[in-house]
């Protein structure tokens, strides 16, 4: 009976060590989430539109947004800055989302700028597929409704 007890203990120790290491590793990574994304419905003569929403990192490690694209337009991440009373849009090639923080895309701040719009933007109940690529978390696909309401 005593020899059986010695045999079981190393197995339990190995399992506990494995669970501990797995949990420690799983906690030290980004966890990217998207919330309330939408695109302002452009007038028919427009060739650009703005997109808004929230990118949240609930993980314990930073991640960098490195690429944004859609098949329906060219798209860039912009930041609006006010200089001498004039709004100026700054193109950002990438941005770091720190752990347990969020990037809020809203008017007169960070936003998505869609240019060279395809006809997809002008259809009734339009929905645009957007691809966002992060350095550590990889590529995400999200659907953005095109709507005229700011609600």
- What name does the CATH topology of the largest domain carry? Immunoglobulin-like
The amount of beta strand, in percent, is over 45%
Silhouette? globular
- Straight-line N-to-C gap: 71 Å
Identify the CATH homologous superfamily of the largest domain: PCu(A)C copper chaperone
Q: Which residues form runs of ≥5 with pLDDT under 50?
A: none
Q: How many individual β-strands? A: 10
- The CATH class of the largest domain: Mainly Beta
The major pleated sheet works out as: 10 strands, mixed
Rg from Cα: 23 Å
Mean pLDDT comes to 88
Topology:
Layout: H1 2-27, E1 32-40, E2 48-57, E3 63-69, E4 74-83, E5 86-92, E6 95-97, E7 101-105, E8 110-115, E9 127-134, E10 138-147
Parallel strand pairs: 1-10
Antiparallel strand pairs: 1-2, 2-7, 2-8, 3-6, 3-9, 4-5, 4-8, 9-10
Q: Any key phrases for this structure?
A:
1 helix; alpha+beta; Immunoglobulin-like; single chain; 10 strands
General description of the model:
With 151 residues, this protein is of the alpha+beta class. The protein has 2 domains: 1-29; 32-147, PCu(A)C copper chaperone (Immunoglobulin-like, Sandwich), CATH 2.60.40. 17% of the residues lie in helices and 50% in strands. Strands 1, 2, 3, 4, 5, 6, 7, 8, 9 and 10 form a 10-stranded mixed beta sheet that branches. The chain is globular.
